[in-house]
Amino acid sequence: MSAAPTSSAVEASLTALAVSLRGVTKTYDNGVMALGPLDLAVRKGEFIALLGPSGCGKSTALRLIAGLSAPSSGTVRVAHHEGPAQPGHGIGFVFQEPTLMPWTSVRENVRLPLKLGGVPKAEGRARADQALASVGLADFADAFPRELSGGMKMRVSLARALVTDPDILLMDEPFAALDEITRFRLNNDLLTLWRSLGKTVIFVTHSVFESVYLSQRVVVMTARPGRIQADIRIETVEPRGEEFRTSAAYSDYCRRVSAALAPSYSGQSTL
Amino acid sequence: MNAQAPVIAKPSPAQRAMRFVLPVIVFAAGLLAWELVVRIKDIPPYVLPAPSVIVLTLIKDWAVLSQSLATTLLTTLEGFIAASIGGIALALLFNQSKWVEYSLFPYAVVLQVTPVIAIAPLLLIYLEQQTAVVVCAFIVAFFPVLSNTTLGLNSVDRNLAGLFQLYDASPPQTLRFLKLPAALPYILGGLRIAGGLSLIGAVVAEIAAGTAGAGSGLAYRIAESGYRLNIPRMFAALLLLSLAGIVIYGVLALVSHLVLRRWHESALGKEN
To answer: Which residue ranges does UniProt annotate as crossing the membrane (chain B) (predicted)?
Structure first.
């Protein structure tokens, strides 16, 4: 999977890469090695799932890509529209929890990234409304987060991540806390959004089924320190829908991914 | 049983009315008993004045008492404003730098745990009387504002903080759009305590100052009436102080409710 290509090949492929990690490790202050060394290349427009046992450093990898923390060694490269400026603005981040500001309206929550970036208020509000419409919440712009259901809050969180029109969407187990029905609906909506917007998505999950259903590539990670165990390409008829979820190919992929994941769980407690 | 549940969860108007009516009935019954005991036992007013006498005194001495009330309320207000600004500002300073917090926090605690009644005579030596009284009110009231605001600023959701970092928020933006709103319920809680405490601080300082000589606040009136055995006036002044305390608390609670009602659990009511 990640056999080192020649350096000229690396340079050539970098243009098409949205994110590349080279020999990245992360060691926390208390000496715990959380990650790596990790090599990962994500092409522009690709939807990949990072799958692994809890505590394997999936979220750490995501935070490194987002620039929320710095790697202990190795390099993290993230491509931006044009020019190297504006770190962060090319990235949208969806946390495990909705992470909304409870003291203000849904519209203001979605407008936040624009407000922080100095976008004028009127334009910001218009773009926030547009982002809310794209996740089907146009009617709830004036509601407060506490008035929404768990699934709706997650949609608001997604709208906020999309409002800056980022190239890369990082999602950290976003639907893990939701019930299965809501989760399936949001999975489908996310796929629809991804197809229409053409963004690069890195989706962290601990659900084999979710990873296979959503992504073009499932990257299976080992237990701590997280390294890549397997890199499995999911090839099926696009666009995917409910029929894929019940197909033989789907359960076949799930079995392969589960098998790749099994060594991480054997012989140790992952609690 | 199940069908009844919503009715039980949400108090009916009659139930809510009883929450106000019952304490009033208890209060009235207490007053009546007091009045009866004084009249039946024929207790002289300089030992225990009847409620009716206290009310009459309040009306008769209104000119003096209202002026004293105004003085005490002004002192309380000045102490409260100083405590609010000082407490919040110091908490913001602590939040900016751990070193400042480590250096100064022990002294804030020392100020808090030293009884203000013991500090007041010293302050009266070094400061002009009115200033000393306000400083006393400030000392008593600022600590809850400081500690609550500090708690609030440290209670910011980690992921929200990460989000602000992701979008390159400047420190002033983070303060204004994230830290202060997140700390607001805590700050308001601190202010609610500080309101009552600044009244206490003002009264304590007035009593200390009163024994030293001049002064015209309600506490001074109480001390002065005590020396003159004008017990009805003592009670009347005490009544005004209680009422002032209740009003201060009520106003601050109302402000807190109005500010937080759209989003904070504390202001949403139990039926939600």
So the answer is: 20-38, 45-63, 69-92, 104-126, 132-156, 200-223, 235-260
The model's pLDDT over B19-75, given as tens digits with 9 standing for 90+, comes to: 889 999 999 999 999 999 999 999 998 889 999 999 999 999 999 899 999 989 999
Q: What is the number of structural domains in chain B?
A: 2
User: Does B102 contact chain A (CB < 8 Å)?
Assistant: no
Residue in chain B lying closest to A92 (CA): B166
Contact A103 B178 (CB under 8 A): no
pLDDT digit string, tens, across residues A78-128: 876 544 444 446 888 999 889 999 999 999 999 999 999 888 999 999 999
Written as six digits, the tokens of A40 are 């990962």
Domain match, B139 and B244 both: yes
Note whether ipTM > 0.85 here. no
What are the structure tokens assigned to A188, written together?
A: 């489908």
Most confident of A225-229, B25-29, B226-230: B25-29
Question: Are the Cβ atoms of B167 and A116 closer than 8 angstroms?
Answer: yes
CB within 8 Å of B256: residues ≥ 6 apart: B185, B188, B189, B191, B192, B267
Q: Is A103 on the interface with B (CB under 8 A)?
A: yes
Judgement on whether residues B161 and B205 belong to the same structural domain of the protein: yes
Helix (H) or strand (E) holding A220: strand A217-221
| Binary contact (B159, A68; C-beta < 8 A) | no
Q: How far does Cα B18 stand from its chain's mean position?
A: 26
B176 to chain A: closest CA residue: A116
Q: Which residues contact B218 (CB under 8 A, 6 or more apart)?
A: B65, B68, B69, B71, B72, B203, B206, B237, B240, B241, B244
| Cβ–Cβ below 8 Å for A116 and B262 | no
Q: What is the dihedral of CA B13, B19, B21, B22, to 10 degrees?
A: 140
Nearest CA in chain A to B185: A103
Residue type, A29: D
Closest-CA residue in chain A for B268? Answer: A146
One domain for residues B16 and B131: no
Stated pTM of the model? 0.81
Confirm or reject contact between B263 and chain A (CB < 8 A).
yes
Q: Do B263 and A97 touch (CB under 8 A)?
A: no
- Give the pLDDT of residue A80: 64
Q: Which domain holds residue B178?
A: 52-267
Same domain, B15 and B118: no
- Of the candidate ranges A15-29, A94-108, B180-194, B242-256, the one whose mean pLDDT is the lowest: A15-29
With an 8 Å Cβ cutoff, are A144 and B263 in contact? yes
